[in-house]
Write a structure and sequence with these properties.
Distance between the termini: 25 Å
Bound molecules: pyridoxal-5'-phosphate
Oligomer: single chain
Radius of gyration: 21 Å
CATH topology of the largest domain: Aspartate Aminotransferase, domain 2
CATH class of the largest domain: Alpha Beta
Largest sheet: 8 strands, mixed
């Protein structure tokens, strides 16, 4: 039986057709009609008026920080409970991340800790240059609480919505809450271009500048003229074609992932000590990954290893950034919540293309491991 992955790509005939169209048109470059169309379609999906299609979500985060003029000597508040790419981007621009813990009600950023840190930073006379808020595992952070706090201190929000395309919060789409927001279309995301990302914003000049920086910062001239350091961060037209096909299926993919999560909850919900990632009223998660915590590290490991021995991929929840060796000298505000989630938490196979029988296998193995 082939290995069952956590979140594999789920392709359909539209993607294949569009990819062949791009190929046959000979737009084999990081620009072209599919790139333009993908940007427009992402804009319609997210409600963000301007979008730059990029080579990765990490590139989008890097450009977002650069566009806000953040650099050496600055600090940025960052969710500790996230993938390393979020925090790495802060270091790319030479700034210092300050890690903020999650709360247990959402597993996302704890707004009280953000407020406390901004209050303290304001008293110290050195406010951070931004809050880099992560929408975790397909679920938005609590922007009704975060936005007024940040507005009060004049600190912009950058939204790392890499994991959350298709989610909504109080009816608004993920990616529409930050001054700039980043998406990822990496192979494990809800839709994928194999590798890819996007930067979204409401200010056209910023997104225009992102496109400029992402194409080696070429000044307008017949020869190659450069007055800025640039990057090679644009998305290939071939990959944008795949992304357009994927985007057409987003609604179905969200429904399918939510169904996977709901079946796990229905059939594993009575396990002693099992706690699922909460989805409070007003949130609509995509359940990009189906996540739960167990009573203990040993229970979590017993389940993970039982799945692994059946060639089924399951992963511990993110190891918080404040525990990562590379960030050990950074300041952390709180930390015990994400530490506990990491200690006992697991992501189960969650692909939108997972068959009922594969999910039955997972469920039976988990029940057996815990019996
Ligand atoms: C929260 C988060 N931020 C950023 C990224 C980086 O995106 P990419 O892999 O497209 O660079 C990812 C995932 O890969 C992520 O999960």
């Amino acid at each position: 039986m082939p290995r069952l992955y956590l979140s594999p790509p789920h392709m359909g005939p539209d993607e294949r057709q569009l990819l062949l169209d791009a190929f046959d048109s000979n737009w084999i470059a990081p620009l072209g009609p599919h790139v333009d169309a993908f940007e427009q379609e992402l804009s319609a999906e997210t409600g963000m008026p301007y979008v730059a299609a990029l080579s990765s979500g990490t590139a989008a985060l890097h450009l977002a920080l650069e566009l806000l003029g953040i650099g050496r000597g600055d600090s940025v508040l960052v969710s500790s409970f996230t993938f390393a790419a979020t925090a790495n981007a802060v270091r790319y621009v030479g700034a210092e991340p300050v890690f903020i813990d999650s709360d247990l009600d959402t597993w996302n950023l704890d707004p009280d800790l953000v407020a406390q840190e901004l209050e303290d930073a304001s008293k110290r006379g050195r406010l951070p240059k931004a809050l880099l808020a992560v929408d975790l595992y397909g679920q938005c952070a609590d922007y009704d609480r975060l936005s007024p706090i940040c507005e009060h201190f004049g600190v912009p929000i950058l939204e790392d919505a890499a994991e959350a395309l298709g989610a909504t919060y109080r009816g608004r789409p993920a990616g529409s809450f930050g001054e700039l927001s980043a998406f990822s279309f990496n192979g494990n995301k809800i839709i994928t271009t194999s590798g890819g990302g996007a930067l979204c914003g409401a200010d056209s000049s910023r997104i225009q500048k992102a496109r400029f920086l992402a194409t080696q910062a070429r000044d307008p001239a017949p020869h190659y003229e450069h007055s800025h350091i640039g990057y090679n961060y644009r998305l290939s037209n071939l990959l944008a074609a795949v992304g357009r096909g994927q985007l057409r299926q987003l609604g179905q993919r969200v429904t399918a992932r939510r169904r996977v999560f709901q079946r796990y909850v229905a059939e594993l919900g009575s396990l002693p000590g099992a706690t699922w990632m909460p989805e409070p009223e007003g949130w609509r998660s995509t359940h990009w990954l189906s996540c739960l915590t167990f009573q203990s590290f040993d229970d979590r490991e017993r389940v993970r290893l039982a799945l692994e021995s059946a060639d089924i991929e399951a992963r511990p929840l993110w190891k918080p950034m404040h525990l990562q060796p590379i960030f050990q000298t950074c300041r952390a505000v709180g930390g015990s919540v994400s530490e506990a989630l990491f200690e006992t938490g697991l992501c189960l196979p969650s692909g939108s293309g997972m068959s009922e029988s594969d999910q039955t296998r997972v469920i039976e193995l988990v029940l057996r491991a815990m019996s």
